[in-house]
Amino acid sequence: MSQCGCFEQTLHYVSPSHGGWGVVRIAALVPESHHLFVCPFACGRHTALCGEMNGIKEQVSYLFIDEADIISGDYEQMIINGVDDLFEGLDKIPKVLFIFTACLDDLLGTDHEPILAELSEKYPDVQFRHCKMNPISLDSKLPPGVTLQMNMYSLLEKSTEQKNTVNLIGINTVAKNGDLRDILAQKGYRLLHISEYDRFEDFREMSSSKLDILAGPAAKMASKDMEKNLGISTVEGYVTYREQDIDAFYTRLSEALGENLIPLTAPYRDKARQKIAEAKAVIGDYPIAVDYQAVLRVAMVASDGIPAFEQENYEKLMELVPDLLLVNPLHHDSVKFGLTDKDFLCIGFDCGYITASDKVANLMEDDYMYGYDGVCRLMDMLIAAFNEKADVSEMIEKAGLII
Prior knowledge:
Elements: H1 22-27, E1 33-39, H2 41-53, E2 60-64, H3 67-72, H4 75-89, E3 96-101, H5 103-108, H6 113-122, E4 127-132, H7 144-153, E5 165-169, H8 179-186, E6 190-192, H9 200-203, E7 211-214, H10 220-230, E8 233-236, H11 243-257, H12 262-283, E9 288-291, E10 298-302, H13 311-320, E11 325-327, E12 345-347, H14 349-355, E13 360-361, H15 371-387, H16 392-399
Parallel strand pairs: 1-2, 1-3, 3-4, 5-6, 5-7, 7-8, 9-10, 9-12, 10-11, 12-13
Helix pairs in contact: 7-10, 12-15
């Protein structure tokens, strides 16, 4: 399989190593929330596995529907009745209820606004949001991952005060320490992230922030809504491991905050350069394979597509490395495992799986990676992966992947 034709519309191989956080796990970041999935049994089985694997099964409930329910005309009332039954059975009524519907709901064309309005009237202390778990809309302008982020941050209400806080959105995790948090603190700002809250009311302090940092494209529409509805402006700062891009981000951040942050970045930049030198000394010219989860001599990139925001980088990479091997882990040819005779140091277990490499850096969706601290963490992971034998099967099992 070469770079030509690997993104063709064809039969997909459902790789056990391919997937990510999934809508269930991401929605569970909202504190004191519960999730009701309205779907056929097969779809519920999928999300139930996700809840079990990621330790959030107590936050997820199901309202299973079949063909008879659909043609009966009582589908909308079933949802309302289902919420009544759910709240009656829960020990504590949640602050937020996400009602997820599957592909079938889109085909029915259900109007959820009247449903949410009736539920809000019955339960005024609960925030209700309709979300989609709809794979057929993945190539649309508003796929489930995007609308979920919009729903999550729509829970914030406009504040009358502005605090010296900065929101980091569009990334699922954030490190407790790192250059971004430290540099902001030196200028009197706190960095806020949704994963660090246990109480819903505490989470709502994000509405008082001075600025949003957009760390991933899935939250771009949410950031626009926050700017419109909450008056919080946005600085784009996607996760990157390139020094020039990190410097450019800090320049934009400085301008947005009206602070000169650039001198404060120097020690973190120097440390990142030192870590890169250490990694090069250990790894040398050993070929590196990078999968969609997250660059040294790159020999292979594994991805099921090229996102629009990465198109320019992709074209430049192909120009610099014309013999780069580009593979799609979901292509049906992947089952042939034609790369197992080659040596790769893999960043991400997706390419670790298809190459059968035992040198794998366990990175998923850039978890805990940001700024120069992310560069340092990545270099440490590469050195460890090069020196230690990896168990990819164990990595996949612990990751709790959802396609």
